[in-house]
Amino acid sequence: MRKITLIGLFIMMSASVAQSQVLISLLFGDKLNTGKIEFGLSGGFNLSYLRNINESKGQNNWNLGFYFDILLKEKSPWYIGTGVFVKSNVGGRNVPLDYEGNRAINDSVYIDFVAANGKVEKQFNTFYVPLNVRYLSKWGIFVDAGAQAGLVFKTRDLYSADIDGYTLEYQVIEGAINNGLYKWFDGGVDVGIGYKTKKASGWKIGVWYYAGLTNIYKNDLGYKAYNSSLYVLATYPIGKKKAEKERAEKANAGK
């Protein structure tokens, strides 16, 4: 019980961070950028799908978060890349109605969807924290490899069908901790490749692939499926120029 309470508090705190992260970044970005740490915002697109459910298809989502790039050694090409994907949905669509891992719904409603050849879309609202080792070449090309851990704070099963030009929908939305079906934790490995500009702003763009290794279902249910996602993201440092200018002024003042 204590564990569930602590997780719940963390979720509420994280939701508050999601609403204010842009404002905080703009106000304090220069304080978070140092000679070895680069801080900024990340955003883009991700195509997610559910492995082990053969009939399912990909799901399109938007991504928003913040990042830290940590230089391991001065003038070294090696970095640690981390941060938080605050808005990061994963899941899949086109799951068959008779798939055992769907939430049970009212029999009369279920019959309507069966008659209309309906499908189910599964969505997992998740805070992800990547932790990657990065090699940045002198040409600006970089490669990433590491792990990614996620906290699932909300799940949705959306039943939908088209009937004579109209869309019939029924959805079940629950917190992932107490729903009895899905796990609240998701984790796996990721790899990426991209380009970082040599301009003063230092923005970068890249593609990352995440392969979940954690079964989305609780272990005693017998179902197995895994989240995977292809990310196309761009990052932009916040306050980097100001921080570098202040460091240069201090260095000159000390001469």
Reconstruct the topology from this structure.
Blueprint: H1 2-32, E1 37-51, E2 59-71, E3 78-96, H2 107-115, E4 119-136, E5 141-163, E6 166-174, E7 185-196, E8 204-212, E9 226-237, H3 240-253
Structure report:
The protein is of the alpha+beta class and 255 residues long. It has a single domain (2-253), classed as Porin (Beta Barrel). Helix content is 21%, strand content 51%. The protein has 3 helices and 9 strands. It has an 8-stranded antiparallel β-barrel. The longest helix is centred in the first third of the chain and has 31 residues, at 2-32. Mean pLDDT is 83; it is low at 1-20 and 25-29.
Based on the model shown, name its key terms.
single chain; 255 residues; alpha+beta; Porin; eight-stranded antiparallel β-barrel; 3 helices; 9 strands; 51% strand; disordered N terminus
* Helical stretch tally: 3
* CATH architecture heading: Beta Barrel
Uncertain segments of ≥5 residues (pLDDT<50)?
Answer: 1-20, 25-29
Q: Please report the first level of CATH classification, the CATH class.
A: Mainly Beta
| Rg, Cα atoms, Å | 21 Å
Percentage of residues assigned to helices: 10-25%
Task: List the domain count as a whole number.
Answer: 1
User: Could you describe the largest sheet, including whether it forms a barrel?
Assistant: 8 strands, antiparallel, barrel
Order of SSEs: HEEEHEEEEEEH
The pLDDT mean sits at 83
Overall number of strands: 9
| Strands in their spatial order, largest beta sheet | 1-2-3-4-5-7-8-9
What is the CA–CA distance across the termini? 59 Å
